[in-house]
């Protein structure tokens, strides 16, 4: 982890002042160690991504680390700022320089998003699914390369979706066969009822079935004869 230069630190603290949190400028390594302050800052920047109740104040390092792991999974990964386990451990322990380095990354990212009008608000249609990540990809616009946020899912989720689609296709094909069978069955039933009605009323010839084929059978009172 590279240490921030003096100019970078000055820019960072000027940026932090706009959040109007007095505790930010007092022992930042300790005050940010339970992740609560950073969650509050990110809530202002990316309100759709952050649920403050997920980050209660913590005292022990283990519980602080739990907060950081949650923030990393639910928020930082979606912003393309995923942190390593080693970095999360330093943040939870309040190692000098760790939080400044992350805050500087967030400052740069949020400024870029503001310039591109990509800061999501509560009105944006952004999915909160933990399996969906937002990463920055390079795309050529004119003669320049720009970073554009793009949603990505795990390949295992893609395979699962493909399997579900294939299973639904098989179910649809099976149901289609059953519908065809029922239609044929109803047709035979309808003809059978018609024949019975004809016999009851002493009508003319009626249809009957021999070896799966329909034949015309004359009524006893009719002069018609059996025909195929």
From TrEMBL:
Cellular component terms per the entry's GO annotation: axoneme
InterPro entries, per database record: CH_2, CH_dom, CH_dom_sf, Spermatogenesis_Ciliary_MAP
One Pfam family cited in the UniProt record for this chain: CH_2
Residues that span the membrane, as ranges: none
GO BP term, example: regulation of cytoskeleton organization
One GO molecular-function entry: microtubule binding
Location of the Calponin-homology (CH) domain: 6-111
Highest taxon, organism lineage: Eukaryota
Protein name per its UniProtKB record: Calponin-homology (CH) domain-containing protein
Organism: Hermetia illucens (Black soldier fly)
């Amino acid at each position: 982890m590279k240490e921030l230069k003096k100019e970078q630190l000055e820019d960072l603290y000027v940026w932090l002042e706009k959040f109007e949190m007095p505790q930010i400028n007092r022992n930042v390594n300790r005050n940010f160690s339970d992740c609560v302050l950073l969650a509050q800052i990110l809530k202002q920047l990316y309100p759709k991504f952050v649920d403050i109740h997920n980050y209660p104040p913590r005292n022990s390092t283990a519980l602080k680390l739990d907060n950081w792991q949650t923030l990393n999974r639910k928020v930082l990964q979606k912003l393309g700022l995923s942190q390593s386990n080693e970095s999360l451990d330093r943040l939870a322990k309040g190692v000098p320089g760790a939080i400044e380095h992350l805050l500087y990354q967030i400052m740069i990212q949020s400024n870029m998003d503001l310039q591109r009008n990509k800061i999501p608000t509560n009105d944006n249609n952004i999915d909160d699914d933990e399996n969906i990540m937002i990463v920055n990809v390079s795309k050529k616009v004119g003669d320049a390369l720009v970073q554009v946020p793009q949603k990505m899912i795990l390949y295992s989720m893609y395979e699962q979706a493909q399997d579900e689609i294939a299973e639904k296709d098989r179910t649809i094909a099976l149901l289609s066969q059953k519908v065809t069978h029922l239609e044929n069955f109803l047709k035979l039933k309808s003809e059978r009822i018609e024949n019975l009605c004809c016999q009851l009323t002493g009508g003319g010839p009626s249809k009957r079935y021999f070896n799966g084929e329909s034949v015309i059978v004359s009524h006893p009172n009719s002069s018609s004869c059996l025909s195929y």
